[in-house]
Write a structure and sequence with these properties.
- The protein is an alpha/beta fold.
- The strands form 10 sheets. It has a 4-stranded antiparallel β-sheet. A 4-stranded mixed β-sheet has the order 10-11-9-12, covered by helices on one side.
- The longest helix has about 30 residues, at about 860-890.
- The protein is elongated and about 115 Å long.
- It starts with a helix and ends with a helix.
- The relative contact order is 0.09.
- The protein binds one RNA strand of 76 nucleotides through β8, α9, β13, α12 and β25.
Length: about 900
Amino acid sequence: MAEAISTTAEILPKAYEPHEVEKRWYSFWEQKGLFMAKITDEKRPYSIVIPPPNITGSLHMGHALNNILQDILIRYKKMAGYNVLWVPGTDHAGIATQNVVERQLAAEGLDRHTVGREKFIERVWQWKEESGGQIINQLKRLGCACDWSRQRFTMDEGLSRAVREVFVRLYREGLIYRGDYIINWCPRCHTALADLEVEHETHKGNLYYIRYPYAEGTGYVVVATTRPETMLGDTAVAVSPEDERYKNVIGRNLILPLLKRVIPVISDSYVDPSFGTGALKITPAHDPNDFEIGLRHKLPTVKVMDETGHMNDEAGPYRGLGRYKCRKKVVADLEAEGLLEKIEPLEHAVGHCYRCKTVVEPTLSKQWFVSVKRLAERAVVAVETGQTRIIPKTWENTYFDWMHNIRDWCISRQIWWGHRIPAWYCDTCSEVIIDTEAPVRCPKCAGKNIRQEEDVLDTWFSSALWPFSTLGWPEETRELKLFYPTSVLITGFDILFFWVARMLMMGLHFMGEVPFKDVYIHALVRDAEGQKMSKSKGNVIDPLIIMDKYGTDAFRFTLAAFAAQGRDIRLSEQRIEGYRHFINKVWNAARFVLMNVDGCQTVEVLRPAPRLSLENRWILSRLKEVIVQVREGLEDYRFNDAAQALYQFVWREYCDWYLEMIKPTLYLTEDQEARNAAQQVMLSVLSASLRLLHPFVPFVTEELWHYLPGSTGSIMEAPFPEGKDYPEDLESEEQMGLLMDVITGIRNLRSEMNVHPAQKVNVIMLSGDAAGRALISVHEGSIRTLARVENLEIRADGDRPRGAVSYITDQVETYMLLQGVVDITAETARLQKEAVKLQTELKRVQNKLANSDFLERAPAAIIAKEKDKVQEFVARLEKIEANLKRLKNVQV
RNA sequence: GGGCGGAUAGCUCAGUUGGGAGAGCAUCGGCCUUACAAGCCGGGGGUCACAGGUUCAAGUCCUGUUCCGCCUACCA
């Protein structure tokens, strides 16, 4: 056995070195198939589908936090005895991916149109095979326990089939339609965008006041606009029906400047009389509101721009100009004609493409839509009735708000990379055919001139099906039966609408059940200054670099410890460094234990026996408490509480107090039985701590697990500790409390008297309480060790020693003898300070107890507590004052 | 415009049924005590944004104000 001890010390280096360890254990887990769910397992199921990262993505802080939290839950539930499944996968990310490949082509002097659709798609697939797996490897780096055998991609054959199936069913139910509608157009990406894909930003612009002359007679109406170039598409001017100023103008005709078209003045309650001049120019083809007004008044629509943002034939002399050049020229021409009244600066919101930040152009266009009203209603009810809980609850309001005001979802995109819409047009008879498979001939006219819709679906369309499409839908698979609805979805609030709401709608519609029971919305990771991390700001902290520098476990623990609900995380490297120290502490605690286990060969959970000594009973009782806290924290998604509880327990209680306290027993005692007990307890608490820590810091715990005597297999297969195995022991906690208080008191005296840490001191303790004296006496060894005491005398009563400084509690008076002369002035000051503090406290409590209202209305337990305090304070004060008197006498 | 969140120690933040203000980091002082200097021991530091109210009792509940964030929206 002596050999074994020295080997352990050699095997475990002084400091934890994460890199080699991390690599080794991840492949170990994968090889042993520990991440794989078993469909035949009879344990209770617990399932999560990953929010699929874009294949173009590289791991950022948001991914890291998101996936670490999922991994913590997955590992916890697995150890807690569930049949867990974590489905991983990636998203094809239509626009983003297409942009990447287009950029590649551009570098070669090509573009997608010269290459052609088929070849282009091939290129994208090729790119995906070569570079699209990057993010997956980065997730592995994080330690994610995903079932990689079930990895999916939104463009997989199976998922594509689900997409077509959903499209066809919705179409046949009348929930998908095609129509002319005003949509947001990105002139750079050449595609329609859903409302959600438009980001609004405040811009400093101008409000131009333009005169529209009457067609008959003299005079003009002045309209105000921020976008003068759209006037070329105006088909009316609207005023408010309640606006007295324009009462006689309604129904008259105006001459549209520059193009000289005749347009009417109409009245519509949408117009706000207080803004601008109260007259609004109406451009139905280039403004969503104007479009609605145009519908109401049956106005013609005139599109003046093409899909690249350039003016078209309808713009007459402005044809071919870019929209901003055109704006300049229109303004200049108006000015020249004396029709520009004035220009005022104005801040207003401008929509941008969420992908490329180009200013979007509202444009009239033929697109496919999902009619979402009915679907949304059901999804609202599901949350209202608690079938799905949104956590933190505050997000429910945001969700309801959005769902109640939801507008139809534009699902067609004019790009090539994505699920091509399963619609075909017959050129012979104009029939539209919607089917999951391509038709050979037109079912109506039997013609063969059939071509498929060019557009593809919004990427979020396939994402919306993710919870059931990844489990095999539309087949009725055993996976679906077992793991749907999934247990929880973990995501950031930024995709609550994009994704979560739509999954709820689709899940309810096609599965008849919510896709997940809980939705946990986690924080946003910001930089140390609270700024959102972004490449353009240059404040991005790269998780991969962090993991290189500090190790994955330190990184994981940091994020978990800061993942408080409802608040963003401000991350700085300093903090991660702090938690690296914690990982190292765990490492060294284990190192210490392993160096001192001798022949102890068991890591069995040890039931606290009454025969165990105080510190052993105490640490087991504390362990019970931390188990409860960790479990509750994880069940309630309070990751920070769970992590903090572990941090405190392992470092402060286990390392600082418990291990220090048993050192004499381990080193010196002749009592073999006591030593064995200490060894068993320290080992079993270490074992439990490692298991509790494992979901947070999987690598270091797995590494240490294999050094524990008697451990078998992976720590992932070990049971998560249960509170019921460790009865709480209040007596031991109370007694330990007294000892810790006295020891801290002596340490304090030493420090204040500048006693060198290596120097031992002599102490006399007085206590009128026999039980207290017995306790101190039994544990005087601990006091000697932890407070560095040479001679310790325990008395019931008697003269207070001269030449001593004191620490007074209500139960024990502790005197530390000084070798030289006590500085009476300093000691008096010290005691007086203490006395004043106590008197203030005492007074406060006494006032409370003097209040008859308090005595009448406060619960008995609270009153009793206050009374206890009075007793304690009075006892301490009396003793301190007695000491002060003695000091005074000495002085005299 | 509507909505939500935040304001607690120098910094970053906990504080879940209202009952004597906490942690980490930083700082100061002392220690290379044979697991760990990525460590050990000790100390200092807060009118819990402001003003009212409810209550025996408010960081915690209510109202208002100020200052920061964020989301959302069809004021041209």
